[in-house]
Design brief:
By secondary structure, the protein is α+β, with helices and mostly antiparallel strands. It has 5 helices and 12 strands.
């Protein structure tokens, strides 16, 4: 029994030593990768389709560089440290028209940008929630407060959904407000503005598409 206890203690000491050596050998970039992937796991593991396939894909620091942004936009958000920029498709809250936009994440706010204009600014301190479906689509809804500053929640389609949502909730420090699956598995609600709500429906089909159905709902296949 004593030998068994000693063996177990030595095994634990050896394992701790190996882990310490591994951690010391990690580059700063690799550490950031692992820290982000731990958050992604907590948010999406076992909850959203496509998560397992995303494990082997390293996150990029950003999808676009700061100098890819229009100088007018840089001027408008000067003084804020830009952390992440990615192309997105934004869906209008009323007619659901698809618009090409950029999502710019700074240290303190998220911006939806069209060329040289800032279409919407969401300060992380006011961010109410981040919702995705449990399927393999790239739709994310950023929920904002009901006030005069905001036109309503932001509906975006992101090519790198796990990366983008992880970056957003780490920067906003709001991991707890991420909901996967929405209000139920097949639908997700969002605020249009002035007290109105909309619903989007998620279904499974042979070909991915996003469209406005006959009832006026946004349907994501």
């Amino acid at each position: 029994g004593f030998l068994m206890q000693t063996s177990e203690m030595l095994r634990k000491i050896c394992m701790r030593d190996l882990v310490r050596k591994y951690c010391r050998g990690l580059t700063a970039e690799r550490k950031v990768q692992l820290q982000q992937k731990v958050v992604t796991s907590a948010l999406f593991s076992g909850k959203k389709e496509g998560y397992l396939e995303s494990l082997s894909q390293p996150f990029l620091e950003t999808r676009l560089k700061e100098n890819d942004l229009n100088p007018k936009v840089l001027q408008l958000i000067r003084g804020e440290n830009i952390k992440y920029v990615t192309p997105v498709i934004k869906y209008d809250r009323n007619g659901f028209k698809a618009r090409e936009r950029l999502l710019v994440l700074t240290q303190s706010s998220a911006y939806v940008v069209e060329m040289a204009k800032i279409k919407q600014k969401i300060e992380y301190s006011t961010l109410k929630g981040i919702s995705t479906s449990n399927l393999s689509d790239g739709i994310v809804v950023i929920h904002v407060p009901e006030d005069n500053k905001q036109k309503g929640d932001v509906i975006l389609q992101c090519e790198h959904i796990f990366e983008t949502v992880t970056k957003l909730c780490i920067l906003a420090n709001k991991q707890s407000v991420v909901k996967v699956g929405g209000f139920c598995a097949s639908s997700l609600r969002f605020r249009v503005g002035s007290g109105k709500e909309g619903t989007m429906v998620f279904t499974v089909g042979p070909e991915p598409q996003v469209f406005k159905d006959k009832t006026g709902q946004l349907t994501v296949v």
